[in-house]
Write a structure and sequence with these properties.
19% helix; globular; alpha+beta; Immunoglobulin-like
């Protein structure tokens, strides 16, 4: 009978293809399936280390399932599985994804497997290998291995059945709701309460699938509840399917690594949390708050190499767990974009809320972030959580069999991968940008993408009234004599508009047109003063074919700026450099002094003084030592142009003893006017590829730096805008900039004195490739932790 039904389904699909101009391109093919995955034998439950003293579970409090949703047809098929499991390891996910991709003839990035992270589900071989400290007895391990093998069969069955169940004519919509029962368990108040919901209706308007996600652990039930259960995700599925009979309810988990459900401890609490989710789903659907979504899915997958930390870094907390030797793991990020309407991001591992909050802030409100996707290989802390330490950063790695904590820099790598995947979705690749020079207020309209655009108008808005529409400042296209352009009569300090009365303005890729200096920048009174507030701008333009686009605003608008000298320390090597970070002032210095209360200065063997570099007039102070080095120029001064790193002082700082004591460091310098100032100290790796102004960001300001120096030679290969290090600023350096555009430093990852909010760390280029994940073990922890 199954074969007969499948034949009928295939025949109906074939008929649909024969009556359609393009079979695989037809919108709305969709199917679902649901398979019970209750254990067939007694089995140890996962999630809680405290269950090591309990017997195998022999009962089921709530049925658990694997569910599948199949979108599209042919090579455009996309397959989503949700599994009631604490976590799925790579030894389960990778072979099954590869098998399905091969059988279906589709790319692996179109196959995503997520788990609900319920802590009342059976153990899976390879996941949380050290959960119970000691290996399971042989019989118990046999039960786990047998269940894992059967789980793979069930997952394949659900996937295959969902594909067979596809029919045409479905419509997709989505909305973003909220729920409040997930609370940050670290007491830090960092929570993601969003509850995104997708609704799939069939051709006659019936709900066929409801997919929802919420960011909190499946730990409402505790370790003593030794019965199989889906926890709150299972109850949410049950409640939604009761509200919408005939619809498949699929629950995913967001960036929930540092969030627990509150209250917890009872089945009633789990039931109530599930009902909370269901009620929010009903509110969004029944009040017609859903927004239509394209059924055309584009899929992207990136593997990022994450290193494990082997040395203490400045400010690392007590309990920091280091790997005994250099090692790394591959971390996967997958994104699905539904046209330009919705982007689903699927992140591996237990991801803390910082990631979802940052991604949605940077990429917009059409981004839906899921964690616990594909391989759940451990906790993925943010830079902030790494600095704070604790379970999510350190001790959880024991249970996952990881050799130690992950190294700093992981957040920008992961976020950068998502940015690159969603470059076209966010419109960065096909919209115009307004570049603004922080120093002067000079603005240009630039096409940084690959598409040629034609516009017939644009508007720049400033809520704070920071625009100057006067002809001497705003050099409109009309002022420049471009044909048929006309300034709007109502242009003012809050809004300037210009439109083309006939024809359109062509912006080919790489085209840049200046519009003068319409932005009012209020610089600090003098070098060393704090920079005032930022300038908030919006930029819109109208396309010649109709419609208005929101353009990007780039360069230094809306970011912190350091109007001072910065001493940068590489915390891994102790290398020290000094740069003038001010975008406003050139300065000259006659002396500088660096002090370390810990005696960490390598005065004799590491310091590459200006005198050592044969800079005229510079002399080391006779009393320079491990606690203070001083250098002065009694006959002149050294000119430091704004925005450049010009002084390399060698490996001045001794980092062999572990973390750098920032409080014990001080950097002072003497200006040529006799004023002594205290500079900023930052821990950073300055000079990522394409970062031509050395501010830790690859953005529009670097494009301007390249353009201003185009055709010039540099004194040292790789300096300035010589990105390809051939000694000349040329077209190759523009290619370097474009390939790294959007790389952004993580301000929180750099510690600075005295202006910590002002420092940045250069974003490291993504390191792609396919490495085997390396596992390690170390001393067992005694606490009965929930993972």
């Amino acid at each position: 009978m199954n074969r007969f039904r499948n034949a009928l389904r295939q025949a109906s699909l074939l008929l649909a293809c024969l009556t359609s101009a393009v079979c695989y391109g037809q919108d709305g093919y969709f199917g679902t399936a649901k398979v019970n995955i209750n254990p067939l034998t007694p089995i140890m439950l996962s999630g809680y280390a405290g269950r090591a003293t309990l017997a195998e579970s022999t009962g089921v409090q709530q049925n658990i399932f694997v569910q599948a949703a199949a979108f599209g047809m042919g090579a455009e098929t996309s397959l989503l599985l949700t599994v009631d499991s604490t976590g799925l390891p790579d030894n389960v996910v990778d072979p099954l994804r590869a098998k399905l991709a091969n059988n279906l003839g589709i790319a692996q990035e179109r196959i995503v497997m997520t788990c609900t992270h319920s802590h009342s589900c059976p153990c899976v071989s390879g996941y949380l290998p050290n959960l119970f400290g000691a290996p399971l007895p042989a019989t118990q391990q046999q039960h786990v291995d047998a269940y894992t093998a059967k789980l793979v069969e069930w997952m394949e069955e659900a996937a295959t059945e969902a594909l067979d169940n596809r029919t045409p004519g479905h419509e997709i919509s989505w909305a973003n709701g909220s729920a409040g029962f997930g609370q940050n368990r670290r007491g830090e108040g960092v929570d993601d309460h969003d509850l995104p919901v997708m609704l799939v209706k069939n051709a006659v308007g019936e709900a066929k699938a409801i997919i929802a996600s919420y960011a909190t652990h499946g730990t409402t039930l505790n370790a003593s509840d030794n019965l199989v259960s889906g926890d709150w995700p299972g109850y949410a599925r049950q409640a939604i399917e009761t509200l919408y009979p005939g619809a498949a309810a699929m629950i995913m988990i967001g960036a929930a690594a540092d969030s627990n459900p509150t209250p917890a401890g009872t089945s009633l609490a789990a039931f109530n949390h599930g009902r909370t989710v269901a009620n929010e789903v009903r509110r969004l659907i029944d009040n017609n708050l859903m927004t239509p979504v394209s059924s055309q899915i584009s899929a992207f997958q990136t593997e990022v190499k994450l290193d494990f930390a082997t040395t203490l870094q400045p400010g690392d907390p007590p309990g920091t767990m280091l790997a005994p030797s250099p090692s790394s793991m591959n971390y996967g990020v997958t994104s699905w974009t539904f046209g330009k309407d919705l982007a689903m991001v699927f992140m591996e591992g237990e991801v803390v809320a910082d990631y979802s909050l940052r991604l949605k802030a940077e990429l917009g409100d059409k981004v839906w972030v899921n964690a616990y996707s594909n391989d759940v290989m451990g906790y993925i802390p943010s830079e902030r959580v790494l600095r704070a330490g604790g379970y999510e950063a350190d001790s959880s790695n024991y249970y996952y069999g990881n050799p130690g904590r992950l190294a700093y820099g992981l957040e920008d790598k992961i976020v950068g991968a998502v940015h690159e995947q969603l470059f076209d979705f966010t419109g960065q690749g096909d919209r115009l940008q307004l570049l603004v020079d922080w120093r002067t207020g000079e603005a240009s309209i630039v096409n940084m993408g690959d598409l040629t655009l034609s516009i017939d108008g644009y508007t720049i808005s400033s809520p704070a009234g920071k625009l100057n529409p006067a002809n001497g400042a705003w050099q409109s296209f009309q002022d420049q004599g471009l044909s048929s352009w006309d300034e709007a009569n109502n242009s003012n300090s809050s809004r300037i508009t210009e439109f083309k009365t006939a024809g359109s303005q062509l912006f080919a890729p790489g085209t840049r047109l200046s519009i003068g200096r319409p932005v009012i920048i209020v610089p600090p009174a003098k070098f060393g003063d704090d920079v005032g507030g930022t300038v908030e701008l919006t930029f819109e333009y109208s396309l010649a074919g109709g419609g208005t686009e929101q353009g990007g605003v780039r360069a230094e608008i809306g970011v912190d700026v350091i109007n001072n000298l910065v001493m940068t320390i590489n915390p891994l090597t102790g290398a020290v450099g000094i740069r003038n970070a001010s975008p406003f002032f050139d300065v000259s210095i006659a002396a500088y002094s660096i002090a370390s209360t810990d005696g960490k200065l390598r005065r004799a063997v590491g310091w590459r003084s200006l005198a050592d570099q044969s800079l005229a007039g510079w002399d080391e102070a006779d009393n320079s030592n491990a606690f203070r080095v001083t250098e002065f120029n009694p006959t002149g001064q050294l000119y430091l142009a704004e925005g450049g790193t010009v002084l390399n002082l060698g490996t001045l700082l001794d980092v062999s003893g572990g973390a750098i004591n920032l409080d014990g460091l001080k950097f002072e310098f003497l200006l040529s006017n006799g004023e002594t100032l205290v500079g900023v100290i930052e821990l950073a790796e300055v000079g990522a590829a394409g970062d031509y102004d050395l501010d830790g960001r690859v953005d529009g300001a670097d494009f301007l730096a390249w353009q201003r120096s185009l055709g010039s030679s540099v004194a040292v290969a790789g300096a300035g805008a010589d990105g390809n290090a051939n000694g000349v600023v040329d077209a190759g350096d523009l290619a370097v900039w474009r390939s790294h555009f959007g790389s952004v430093g993580n301000e929180e990852a750099a510690a600075s004195v005295p202006e910590p909010a002002s420092s940045t760390i250069a974003w490291l280029p993504l390191l792609l490739g396919f490495l085997h994940r390396r596992r390690g073990v170390y001393a067992r922890f005694a606490d009965a932790q929930a993972c």
